[in-house]
């Protein structure tokens, strides 16, 4: 053999050695030339087993490469280099035993120790004979390799963690099907008297032919695993490992059944549990002091979560709570920075601050019942956090059971704390749509509207109750803004029991942000007017909403408050009742920051009284120029706004709506610009005189002449009377008689007569 050939051979061999180590799955077919080196090694391993000795000594060499080797070896005579050929390819004698054993048979201890004389004796004498032997060895190796890898695969299948998932590589689907079928729709499906009846061969035939058969004969109920998992069970009862798939199947079937039972039990007791929960005001201390309670709370508070599986999870909950309690009891010995400890600290802090919060909230006269609600919600939220953490822990343990087929080990305290982390992050991740106000969480549903610096969301709070959440951003360093908002909150608190004012339920003011939680309206009046803009004028509609509006304003005025920012968008319908929202902000803000420019962002100051604009002008320019201005913003300003809204309802636009931009402001302030009151609408609909009279009474430029809210409420337009034919008859008769007796009547007498008649009509209440 030439040196080159030998090098090639060495290369091939070393490559094959590498290949054999890295990709053994492919050696299911007889080794080709490229597999020759690995075949040598495989045979070496095989040779440790007694039946693996080569037997085919007389096979002919058919491989052309071997023939080439044969030829080249007979042409050149470097047999001594055969020693070099193998001398370095392995570090242990066992790895060199193919040639080593062959040489050992000739009293050679190993390749590393053989000398050239030995080679000459064994190789030089008859190369043909050697190659025949090699051929027979090759055949042997082929068989051995096939069986060896089949065996390895089986071992992997039995020992590896894919056992119940996949099975041996090429039999996955078969086994999966078998297992799928094994899902106990009815536990009677599986009957086996003795798990050992499983066919013991671990190879595929066992699974394909024996598995289903055996399962049919199982006594499913007879196996009691206790706390053992399938592997432990097999070890304990000295069962063959080939039983593992069957035992595992039974094990998981049993677990599924247990879970089903547990779920049923949970379901049947949920109602009772929820009753217990609702009757017990939750507090962190009670949770910790009563393990049983805490467990039931846990199960009932997670209705939509996956049910925890089997006893491991329940034990785990107890363990965690126990550990938590121990941690807290010992206080210094536990991990004070652990998430569970933090939750407990929060609970404790919450409890400590309860009285403080109550005090603060009472100071602004917010409903005391609501304060309790807020505190209860806060406690519930904390409890939910703890339950989430525990459920997460349970699921982690459950996953370990599934993948490693062993009972979840009782985790050490530190491990539990680490596992709780994902629950916390999940809690945070779900916060994207959640706004927290005073530790109560509100989930955004939709945007209801927006103002210059605010957004109002429809939100869902605890118990799925719907609220309006107003988020106002302001300059945190602008004290006047902060004071203004505080003023508004105070006004809302003052009007908290008024049915015509939107209810403020909670608020929180932070750095540049104010959150107001209010009762939620369905639509605002602006939306309603827009909706009806193309519909025929209906005076009953105008009458109804004007009255509703005035009733809201009356409540505010009776409380000594001027809204000063009335517009259709600031009235909302809450379950059919019109209520004022957002009132008082403009009034609460100091005069020099009256929100006229904020208004322009959303429209124009259509509804602002002349005096309000003049006052604003006064404060924004030189004081001297307008020193003599006597106009003040007061209740009449709100009546002006009310008149403007009514005007819009009837004519489709507010009084100065035909002016654009700055001209509108100027027109409102200019006394020479009169408001038109046509007797017909643009659609030629006749407008009742009483309606025109009422609009005029609200839109006097002089605020002192404007009607008060009470007078407007008594107006003919809003309090119309119907006259029957007989009353009309009586009326005419009396008038004729009166005229015959008194042909001349003074203006005052006429007014008296009118008053008397109207009173009588009112008394009739027709
Ligand atoms: N409690 C509520 N229920 C239903 N909708 C509301 C509620 N509060 C406000 N809205 C809606 O949000 C819109 C804006 O409300 P907001 O109180 O901010 O009015 P704004 O006066 O325009 O704001 P700003 O005073 O900042 O200009 C309202 O027009 C209304 O449609």
Outline the low-pLDDT stretches. Answer: 1-124, 159-217, 271-318, 327-336, 360-369, 397-409, 411-429, 588-604, 617-631
- What is the strand tally? 11
Helix run count = 29
Question: Mind describing the biggest β-sheet?
Answer: 6 strands, antiparallel
Helix content: 55-70%
Shape: elongated
Radius of gyration: 47 Å
In brief:
By secondary structure, the protein is α+β, with helices and mostly antiparallel strands. 55% of the residues lie in helices and 7% in strands.
Q: What does this protein structure show overall?
A:
- The chain is of the alpha+beta class and 766 residues long.
- Among the domains are: 30-38 and 434-520, Phosphorylase Kinase, domain 1 (2-Layer Sandwich); 521-588 and 605-619 and 631-720, Transferase(Phosphotransferase) domain 1 (Transferase(Phosphotransferase), domain 1, Orthogonal Bundle); 725-764.
- 55% of the residues lie in helices and 7% in strands.
- It has 29 helices and 11 strands.
- Strands 3-4-5-6-8-7 form a 6-stranded antiparallel sheet. Strands 9-10-11 form a 3-stranded antiparallel sheet. A two-stranded antiparallel sheet has the order 1-2.
- Strand 10 and strand 11 (577-580) form a beta hairpin.
- The longest helix has 37 residues, at 368-404.
- Adenosine-5'-triphosphate is lined by residues 448-454, 456, 468, 470, 502, 518, 520-521, 524, 569-570, 572, 581-582, 585, 598, 602.
